[in-house]
Amino acid sequence: MKAKVYVTLKEGVLDPQGQAVARALGRLGFSEVQDARIGKYIEVQLADDVKDVEGHLKQMCEKLLANTVIEEYRYEIVK
Amino acid sequence: MNVAVVRFPGSNCDDDAFHVVGRVMGQPVRFAWHKESSLGAADAVVLPGGFSYGDYLRAGAMAANSPIMGAVKEFAEKGGPVLAICNGYQIACEAGLLDGALTRNASLHFECRDVHLAVEGKPTPFTRAIPAGRVLRIPIAHAEGRFVHPNIEQLEKEGRVVFRYVDSAGGTNDAANPNGSMANIAGTCNARGNVVGLMPHPERAAELILGSDDGKMLFASLIGETGRRV
Questions:
Q1: A47 in B contact zone (CB under 8 Å)
Q2: Residue B127: exposure state from Cβ atoms within 10 A (0-12, 13-18, ≥19)
Q3: pLDDT of residue B225
C-alpha cells in the first residue's frame, strides 16, 4: 500500500516562496490570485501487512517528515 | 579542553571549526563522524555549518536523526557545552536540543555578508567572557536562517535570546535583520544555557587576517570554562 503525505506551513508562518509564486502568477495575468502557499507532497511505499499503519504514519510525520513547530501534515492511505 | 567537532556528510565548516579550536585556541580537538555512537572524552561539542545530507527534506532534518546525535543529546543533558553554528543550529533545532525553527530567508536570497550582533540573555559557556555591550562583527552565509518560535515572549523572558542582529551602533531595527528572523534573533540557548546555537559563523571570524576576530571570543569563553559545568 501507499501513503500520500502532505506537509504544509502552519497558518501565520511567513512563506516568502509562496508570496513570490503568487506575484509571478499575477504577472502572468492571473489577477484573481491573492496568495499561494508552498508545501511538500511525499509518497511513502509501505508493506501491505503493516499493523497500525495510521499510528506509524503519524510517528513518521512527527519524527521526520514534518517539523511541527512550523508545519502541519495530513496523509491518505491508498490500498 | 577536549573538543569534538561533529562531521556529517555535507558539513563544510568542519575544518574551519577544527582549525579555530586546534590552531587558534591551541586545544585538543577531534572529528566525530556522524555514524559514531559515542563522542569519546569530549568536554565540548561543535555542530558545524554546511549542508548536511544536502539539506534534503528540511535543513538539518536528516542529520538530527543520525547516530551521533544520540550521544550529543546525552552530552547536552548532562550539561556539556554544545555550540551549534549555522547548519549546526538548524540540526540542533530539528533534534530538539534547541527550541524554534530556521526557515527560508524572507528575502529568498542566500545571504552572505558580515552582520553585527548584540550579545544578550543569560550567561552561557560561549558568551560568558564577552564584555557587556560589545557588538560583534561576524559573517553569515545561509538561505534558511529566519528564526521562528511560537512563543518569543517566553524565550525573551527566560533570557534565552543570546544573539540579536543589530546595526553597527547596536540598534535593533529591520535594516539590520538579514533574514526576517522574529525579533532580529540570530542565536538562542536552551533552558539550562549549555547549548547555544547561532546562524552567524564565529569560526570564520576568529583571526584578524580574516577581517575580524570577534568570533574568537566565543571559543575563548568556552576555554575559560574548562572543568566547570553550567
A1: no
A2: buried
A3: 59
Q: Which of A14, A63, A69 sits opposite B150 (nearest CB)?
A: A69
**Please, is B89 exposed, middle or buried when counting C-beta atoms within 10 Å of its C-beta (0-12, 13-18, 19+)?**
buried
pLDDT over threshold 90, residue B226: no
Candidates A16, A40, A65; nearest CB to B104: A16
Do A14 and B106 count as a contact with CB atoms less than 8 A apart? yes
At B31-79, the pLDDT tens digits run 999 999 999 999 999 999 999 999 999 999 999 999 999 999 999 999 9
**What's the domain count of chain B?**
1
In order of their start, the domains of chain A are 2-78 (3.30.1280.10)
Q: Tell whether B32 is covered by a domain.
A: yes
Question: Is B229 among the domain residues?
Answer: no
Domain at B55, CATH number: 3.40.50.880
Q: Which domain holds residue B53?
A: 3-224
What is the DSSP secondary-structure string of B5-52?
EEE-TTB-SHHHHHHIIIIIS---EEEEETT-S---S-SEEEE--B-G
Residue bearing cell 543520525: B66
